[in-house]
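Forum: Protein Structure Q&A
Topic: Joint prediction for protein chains with partners

I've read a bunch of threads here and the consensus seems to be that you should model interacting components together rather than docking separate models afterwards. I'd like to see that in practice. Below is the full input, 606 residues plus whatever partners are listed. Could one of the regulars post the assembled result?
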Amino acid sequence: MLKRLTLALLVSLSLGVASVHAESLELLNVSYDPTRELYRAVNTAFTANYKAATGTDLTIRQSHGGSGTQARSVIDGLEADVVTLAMWPDTNAIAKSGLIPADWTTKLPNNSLPYTSTIVFVVRKGNPKGIRDWADVVKDGVEIVTPNPKTSGNGKLSFLAAWGSVTQRGGSDAEALAFVKKLYEHTPVLDLGARAATTTFVQKKIGDVHLAWENEAHLEVEEANGAVEIVYPPISFFAEPHVAVVSKNAERRGTAAAAKAYLEFLYTPEGQEIIAKHFYRPTNPEILAKYRSTFPEMQLFKIDAVAKSWEDSSAKYFGDGGLFDSFYKPKK
Amino acid sequence: MNDVNRRILPGFGLSLGYTMLYLNFMIAVPMAAGFWKASSLSLDDFTQAAFSDRALAAYWLTLWTSFVSAIVNVVFGGLVAWVLVRYEFPFKKLFDSLVDFPFALPTAVAGLVFGSLLVEGGWYGRFLVPLGIEGAYSRLGIVIVLVFIGFPFVVRTLQPVLESLERDVEEAAACLGANRFATFMRVLLPSITPAVITGFALAFARSLGEYGSVVFISGNMPYKTEIAPVLVVNRLEEFAYAEAAAIACVLLSISFVTLLAINLLERWSARHHG
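Posted by a regular:
Agreed with the consensus. Here's the joint model:
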């Protein structure tokens, strides 16, 4: 009797689970640190749209952390349906592991870039050191805060922005090297990640200029209650935080269609508006024009201006024994 | 009736089996996995990854800051343990429970808090920095957080031993004509030496592996304030798993050798003083 009851219970339970499955889906978006607020807003908007369009209850979970660390988690088995990471090499490392097809950048519009970003300066209120351009950050008595390029995407982009600020204006590689070397001589602390560098600059009040992600810079100004302000350098790096469906995971979990729709939503006018409101530069030209006052025009250069490819830049600048390491090698 | 179980508690086989299984799954296998990962490197690559100048500087920094902080803890932690055991004063229970605080606090928080206190405008820093004492983003800063982290290990190891000391022994020493210094050196010290060494060892070993607090206060400057675990993170960021594992293996070996040496020292001291 008892056995039969248990069996009935089990059967009804499993049926229950199955029927719930038919109408609800769960997506995991593995992203990097500063996108937390952006995706919270995107998820709320998208789940409502998706429910209206398909009748499916969608739950989207978010995971945030250092971009490289997040990529490794996905490679090592974290079941992400989509990845929205900071740096091309991180997404590409996942592609190399076979979870994403090799031609992944062609799967979504605009080279899989729903938004872009850049590196700007955050300075103390009133800009007491008069920092306007890259040459100003290495003036005597100016201290710089930027994270370690070896461990942080923000750090890598700051390095490349500084490098390109010389070479894009006609400077030689040797001059760029001298400039970047000087920049790190003015950097008293190498935090390991973007958020830690923000803490150093805002809470501990170390340094005169913080080389930050544009969207982080806006949050920083908000949090510091006006004790810091943003300066847009005339030239900086064009950061491309690509997005991709982790197709191996999504196909196995039956979430491929929802995952694709989720990322495509980022390109819709509604998605682009949310993106702009969170201080990422929308790739839709109309929306960008609408928010032009938030995103002043700057001369932005891409990775191909400073290296043959991301792999090349990793080896040349940031790899073990690369240029960055050479700055710190003690003279014998 | 002749099959009498002589053991007082039942279940020896089960509990031993469980212990072995646990130690294997939780400790031995993960450690072996680290060495396995590193073994995919050739000897040259291993040497290059694990014994570069920069890595050597980092190991050395980790070792000596751990050593100095453990010594500081033995002296001041010993003093605190003595006071907590021997004297009665208001709010003693409160102070006693404060000792455990570093156990409970996430170490990253400790690093952030000490960092904020010691920077130029911080509560400590505004007095110390004008004197030329740079606590934040320096080697001194590393020692300070390691002292904080290791402190309860020394106090909690010494306390029970000090409690078990009979005052009569000291009185007897005094009656026999020993002065206070001699009483301390020849009566008290020998009986607490094994506990002092154990406390030192625990604080030292804990400091060797510390990461969270140090990265927030050291500034992570290569060759100057960069500890070895940061190098592991560096290599992981390059997706260089094997190289990262190589550095981890060296760290594991250092910890193992240190623990072994300290164990031998403990035994020696137990034989000679106990």
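The interface with chain A takes residues 49, 52-54, 112, 115-116, 119-122, 136-137, 215-216, 219-223, 230, 233-240, 243 of chain B (CB under 8 Å).
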